[in-house]
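Tokens in:
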């Protein structure tokens, strides 16, 4: 029989003078199963045994199964005030056990088997929400101070970074905005046409599409697109910089990350969102015209004239105001989650997802609030 084929065995000798000897032999490999440490511990009477000696001269090959057995035996017996002598184990095993004993176990490292009570979970959630709300308010305040410093000409950021972010927020988003806006215009026109044909009022499809795109859908769809495209990119960029400690380096050099990183992105979204909103309005109206001309047999000139009669600058102004608010929300949500990112690659993914969800929720809430406000003031 080769040494690799020697099965492990445990011999427990009767205690002599309060000392118990546990003789280990054979190959201790985890593939052969874990050793019965609980059975050995149950056989030890703390009234008659004051010390235990582990003898491992007969051990052949060994791996973590030997370490797990010795560690569990030692920890359990020491709680019973029984001293364990490990000096007779293999040298490598003694070194690893000493290293394991030198580093104390974290108190929260073990997973608690029973879930916390419902009241405790509710309390923890409430505390987390309050803490997150405070961080959000602090971040918005710092962003406002950075913007104020910009108006005074004291903000510091690279103009090349500002131009690069504008390129990504504006021209880089035109293809996806064009596609989504045309499709939204098509959908609005088709849904309206199905109902208006029943009354012979197909021409009012132009009113439906024009007002819907100018006041709501142009700004809303542009903001949702930018939240999933640019807001997520902001969170990923700043999160990666947080992981690589680049933001800490900027702080060490005396450069404000709020001015150097957040401010260019905030300004870019504020400047580009109104332009994207106008472009989305035109693309949506063009999509509605396509349905009106092809399905409803409305002449292009009649459709255009009806659109001009239905819309004025006030409707476009409502959409532009909303687009500016949405742009600020998208930029703040992306930068906030990026700055709050943890120090791991998985945290970057969590921050990116959270940025998109936060931005979309805030966009919908703010759109509802602005719609009510405009209705109250009669705009």
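Residues out:
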């Amino acid at each position: 029989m080769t040494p690799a084929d020697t099965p492990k065995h445990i011999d427990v000798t009767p205690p002599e003078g309060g000392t118990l000897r546990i003789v280990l032999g054979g190959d201790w490999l985890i593939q052969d199963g874990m050793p019965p440490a609980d059975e050995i511990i149950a056989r030890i009477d703390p009234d008659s045994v004051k010390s235990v000696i582990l003898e491992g001269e007969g051990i052949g090959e060994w791996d973590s199964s030997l370490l797990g057995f010795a560690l569990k035996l030692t920890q359990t017996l020491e709680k019973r005030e029984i001293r364990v002598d490990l000096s007779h184990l293999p040298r490598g095993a003694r070194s690893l056990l000493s290293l394991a004993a030198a580093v104390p176990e974290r108190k929260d490292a073990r997973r608690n088997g029973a879930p916390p009570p419902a009241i405790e979970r509710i309390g923890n959630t409430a505390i987390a929400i309050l803490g997150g709300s405070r961080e959000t308010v602090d971040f918005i305040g710092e962003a406002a101070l950075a913007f104020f410093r910009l108006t005074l000409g004291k903000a510091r950021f690279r103009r090349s970074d500002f131009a690069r972010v504008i390129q990504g927020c504006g021209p880089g988003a035109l293809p996806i905005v064009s596609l989504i806006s045309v499709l939204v215009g098509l959908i609005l026109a088709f849904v309206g046409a199905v109902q208006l044909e029943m009354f012979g009022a197909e021409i009012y499809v132009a009113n439906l599409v024009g007002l819907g795109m100018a006041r709501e859908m142009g700004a809303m769809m542009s903001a949702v697109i930018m939240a999933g495209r640019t807001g997520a990119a902001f969170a990923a960029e700043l999160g990666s910089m947080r992981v690589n400690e680049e933001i800490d380096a900027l702080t060490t050099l005396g450069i404000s990350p709020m001015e150097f990183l957040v401010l260019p992105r905030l300004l870019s979204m504020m400047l580009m969102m109104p332009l994207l909103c106008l472009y989305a309005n035109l693309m949506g109206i063009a999509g509605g015209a396509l349905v009106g001309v092809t399905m409803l047999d409305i002449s292009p000139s009649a459709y255009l004239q009806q659109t001009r009669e239905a819309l004025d600058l006030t409707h476009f102004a409502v959409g532009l105001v909303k687009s500016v608010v949405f742009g600020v929300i998208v930029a703040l949500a992306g930068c906030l989650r990026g700055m709050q990112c943890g120090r791991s690659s998985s945290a970057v993914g969590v921050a990116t997802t959270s940025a998109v969800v936060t931005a979309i929720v805030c966009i919908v809430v703010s759109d509802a609030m602005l719609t009510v406000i405009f209705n109250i003031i009669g705009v």
